[in-house]
Amino acid sequence: MALYPYTLQPVALNITEAEFHQAQYELFASASPSFGLKTIKKKEWIIMAIVVILAVTGLVFVTGYSTIIFWLMMVAVVIYLLVRTLGFKWYVKREFEKQVADQEMPDEMRQMKLGVQKHGLVMAMPSNQPEMMKSSQMRGMQMRAGSTQQAVIPWTAIKSWDETDDYIFMMFEMKGQQGSQILPKRLQAQKFPIDTVRQHLQEVVAVKGLNPENLKPPA
User: Fold this and answer.
1) N- to C-terminal Cα distance for the chain?
2) Confidence band (pLDDT; 50, 70, 90) for 219?
3) Phi first, then psi: what are they for 25, rounded to 5°?
4) Which residues pair with 117 in a beta bridge?
5) How far apart, in Å, are the Cα atoms of 147 and each of 12, 99, 131?
6) How far from chain centre, in Å, is Cα 192?
7) 53: which of 36, 79, 113, 192 is 20 to 30 A away, CA to CA?
């Protein structure tokens, strides 16, 4: 295995409620059908071009009330483009908000610190937070005592992962307990080795892909 940079000590996650929901939205949007001008298929562009050419031709050679049909053809193309891009983007946002309206960020994420080691992802919490250690995120983990309590998610425990422009998401399973973790890529500015994390994830799960529903904390 090549040498990758690792952390000397865990780095504070410092994730906010707004960032937590933004991360979920990015994952939800990436798993949804794409929207935008670049995603419109060639066949659709051809059909729209034909409609526009016919409409322009009609406006040039036809006068009077008969031109209404050609104006309607032009308007139809514009409406289709708006629905295909902005309209679908609004729909995805609305569906996301419906699904996570009652979901709150797990308390343990507020004070969590993360580290990266060759054997796995290190999760550290203040030792004076006993209730957090009983949470669904921490069940099934062996905690190491001290001023902070630490647990390690072995890379081999990762079952699936995915990433967006701003976050890396992973699902893991340890001793029959499932959990999830969000890694903001902004941590790289604090010398958190995101590329090392990605390398290890690719080694254990070569194909990216994560179901957004799986990010909900286990009951």
Assistant:
1) 38
2) very low
3) -65, -40
4) 120
5) 15, 38, 16
6) 19
7) 36
Confidence of residue 216 (pLDDT cuts 50, 70, 90): very low
In 3D space, the residue among 77, 53, 55 whose CA is nearest the CA of residue 67 turns out to be: 55
CB 6 within 8 A of CB 120: no
pLDDT for 217 equals 43
Structure tokens at 174: 């340890």
DSSP state of 192: -
What digits encode the pLDDT tens for the residues 30-73?
766 666 677 788 999 999 999 999 999 999 988 888 899 999 99
